[in-house]
UniProtKB/TrEMBL annotation:
Keyword set includes DNA-binding: yes
Keywords for the protein's UniProt record, in alphabetical order: DNA-binding
Organism lineage: Bacteria, Pseudomonadati, Pseudomonadota, Gammaproteobacteria, Enterobacterales
Key word DNA-binding present: yes
CDD domains per record: LuxR_C_like (cd06170)
HTH luxR-type domain segment(s): 128-193
Signal peptide: none
SUPFAM superfamilies, sorted: C-terminal effector domain of the bipartite response regulators (SSF46894)
Molecular function per GO: DNA binding
Cross-referenced Pfam families: GerE
UniProt name for this protein: DNA-binding transcriptional activator BglJ
Name of encoding gene: bglJ
Amino acid sequence: MSAMGLKHLFTSPAFNGFEVHLFNNIASFQSTLNFVPYSTLIYSLSDEREERRNCLVCIKGLAASHGMIQRIVLASDEKEASLMNQLSPSRLHGIILKSDPLAALQEQLSKLLNENRRVNDSINNHWNIHRGRLLSPTERAILQFMSCGYSIQEIATQLDRNIKTIRAHKFNAMMKLGVHSDVGLLDAADILTHFPVPDHRAPRFLPALHS
């Protein structure tokens, strides 16, 4: 979504109480964090793996340093929304599809922003999946090892599991992520390359708002 498109998104009267700041890179946004009281970060993705990784790194850092800032992602399509929901290392307050009609986008965004104003910690949207459908720690670890170039045999050794168990976890991860090949799975796993592999051996625009 272009800068013009994002500005148009906030033309609804529902956003009159907010001031919008647009950034075309993470560094310029981060340079303002200590003196602008943002209430929300909205990260607009560009349907590229590198941008997804950058988004997750940014959101993870923001959750650690400024946990009260609401974190919303604008995803290009349903697949990207599912990947971000499954792989995010920190909690997202909402994922919205940019492909939705403008009125629907404005309605969803307005709802999330108003929920945040009431400090409602149970914010969800239709992309938040039941915990039983999220990747398990082992499935996430397998993806991370795969993104680092480990073979199934090497992953089994690292996690002290047999190969059949690792293959079963890999299959489950594919089903949850909605991919049907190793290529698709690696496309998802590649998002995790910036995050450390947990030790299981011991069982292009960022609008930021302030009100």
